């Protein structure tokens, strides 16, 4: 066994925690990955992965085979703890910190003087200090940095993950890291750990600033996508092609309009603005409006499809793609799923869904009898209306002749 400072316990083996655990193991740390899901733990211990991410399977397999990565459902003593659990919101858009509280509870019992705790989960401002207070309550025998500053026994920092699904391993190493310490010493300790695998710059700040930086990044993207989506509504109203408008406007040296689409999905860009809005409701009309524009887009697209389908007595509508963005298998909060659901519950005819990255329709669609999963050839052959919902690679290759005579609604500008 290595000295304790070379052991890391990663709590949460999702699309951030598992790659982080595997990279740490590949850089010589002894890593214990912890997850509440016993199936995930069993898979990782067999050297397998439960998420689709390029090269992750090879890295995990190698780390497990060399005995550098193990998984368990409970944490064990380690020099550093990295928390990467979900922080979603509850129904009224309030942050749900229950997974983080559970993670804190689970590590509190094994914490020792000299340890380092880092949260990578996205957090409302003030949560890293709140975590210090939860840990201090559970462990009155230890001093924490929100009270003891540099005299603390345990150092606590926030270093938000910023990796893009589909490019996680590359971005984990190459992206710059924002590291916010509850005290300067906390940040210094955390930086020492990240330096072992980050080739980008480590940017040191306070925990609260790091929290808002991460939220600002995803909110910035949400607001800018909302602008593109609003422009697409304007173009629909005026009978213009939004991609032509955006492309030409983007030839201006200081304009960079993002891509309009069927809406904003995934668990990050559509969620994080709410953490800012919740903490400063009176100051955030723009972010709130952006959320409303992006959330309304699937219903707008569905209405367009329903109007097009109404031209046919028994329309066959091919819907290409279900994931929340291109070339991944993640259906979480996907606008494409919502659009298919609206078509199946409000329209008529058959809906033929093509999603090359998943084996089964999600439960919310599987139970609807007018929805069938088919392959691309069958959908294109049968369809009266072809709707492009996700710009997956195989859809890019569709020859224009195959769309001739059909009504085409391209929400991603792939076939223009
Ligand atoms: N989208 C558009 N138009 C665009 C760009 C995206 O409609 O021009 C849509 C996508 O189709 C998708 C949604 O927005 O439905 C979000 O996709 P995304 O690629 O913008 O972002 P995510 O959610 O996959 O990952 C984001 C990233 N954040 C930023 O780019 C600022 C990533 O770096 C973060 O690590 C991740 O959130 C996270 O975990 O917070």
Instruction: Count up the helices.
Output: 16
Using only C-alpha atoms, the radius of gyration works out to: 24 Å
The unique ligands bound to this protein are: ligand SAJ
Helical proportion, percent range: 40-55%
Oligomer: single chain
| SS-based class | alpha/beta
Assess the beta-strand content as a share of residues: 5-15%
Detail the poorly predicted runs: none
Write out the strand line-up for the largest beta sheet, numbering strands in chain order: 3-2-1-4-5-6-7-8
Shape: globular
Number of strands: 13
Overall CATH architecture of the largest domain: 3-Layer(aba) Sandwich
The CATH fourth-level homologous superfamily of the largest domain: NAD(P)-binding Rossmann-like Domain
What is the chain-wise order of helices and strands? EHEHHEEHEHHEHEHEHHHHEHEHEHEHE
CATH domain topology of the largest domain: Rossmann fold
Instruction: Please state the average pLDDT score.
Output: 96
Please outline the major beta sheet: 8 strands, mixed
Domain module tally = 2
Q: Could you list some keywords that capture this structure?
A:
Rossmann fold, 16 helices, 416 residues, eight-stranded mixed β-sheet, five-stranded parallel β-sheet, 2 domains, binds ligand SAJ, alpha/beta
């Amino acid at each position: 066994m290595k000295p304790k400072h070379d052991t890391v316990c990663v709590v949460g083996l999702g699309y951030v925690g598992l790659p982080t655990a595997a990279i740490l193991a590949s850089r010589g740390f002894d890593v214990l990955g912890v997850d509440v899901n016993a199936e995930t733990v069993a898979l990782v211990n067999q050297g397998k992965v439960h998420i689709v991410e390029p090269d992750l399977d090879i890295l995990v397999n190698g780390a497990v085979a060399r005995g550098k990565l193990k998984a368990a459902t409970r944490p064990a003593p380690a020099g550093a703890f990295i928390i990467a659990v979900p922080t979603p919101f509850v129904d009224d858009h309030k942050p749900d910190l229950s997974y983080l509280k559970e993670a804190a509870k689970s590590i509190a019992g094994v914490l020792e003087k000299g340890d380092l705790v880092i949260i990578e989960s996205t957090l409302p401002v003030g949560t890293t200090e709140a975590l210090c207070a939860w840990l201090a309550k559970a462990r009155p025998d230890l001093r924490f940095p929100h009270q003891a500053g540099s005299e603390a026994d345990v150092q606590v920092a926030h270093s938000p993950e910023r990796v893009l699904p589909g490019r996680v391993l590359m971005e984990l190493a190459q992206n710059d890291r924002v590291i916010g310490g509850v005290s300067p010493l906390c940040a210094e300790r955390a930086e020492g750990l990240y330096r072992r695998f980050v080739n980008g710059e480590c940017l040191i700040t306070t925990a609260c600033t790091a929290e808002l930086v991460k939220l600002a990044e995803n909110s910035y993207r949400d607001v800018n996508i909302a602008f593109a989506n609003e422009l697409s509504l304007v173009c629909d109203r005026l009978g213009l092609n939004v991609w032509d408008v955006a492309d030409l406007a983007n030839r201006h040296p200081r304009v960079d309009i993002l891509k309009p689409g069927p809406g904003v999905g995934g668990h990050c860009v559509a969620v994080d603005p709410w953490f800012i809005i919740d903490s400063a409701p009176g100051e955030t009309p723009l972010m709130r409006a952006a959320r409303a524009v992006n959330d309304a887009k699937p219903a707008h697209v569905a209405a367009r499809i329903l109007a097009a389908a109404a031209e046919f007595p028994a329309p066959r509508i091919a819907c290409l793609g279900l994931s929340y963005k291109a070339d991944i298998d993640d259906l979480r909060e996907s606008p494409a799923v919502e659009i298919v659901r609206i078509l199946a519950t409000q329209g008529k005819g058959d809906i033929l869904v093509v999603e090359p990255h998943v084996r089964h329709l999600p439960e919310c669609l599987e139970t609807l009898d007018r929805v069938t999963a088919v392959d691309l050839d069958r959908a294109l052959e049968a369809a009266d209306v072809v709707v492009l919902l996700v710009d997956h690679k195989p859809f890019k290759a569709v020859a224009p002749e195959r769309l001739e005579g059909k009504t085409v609604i391209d929400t991603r500008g792939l076939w223009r």
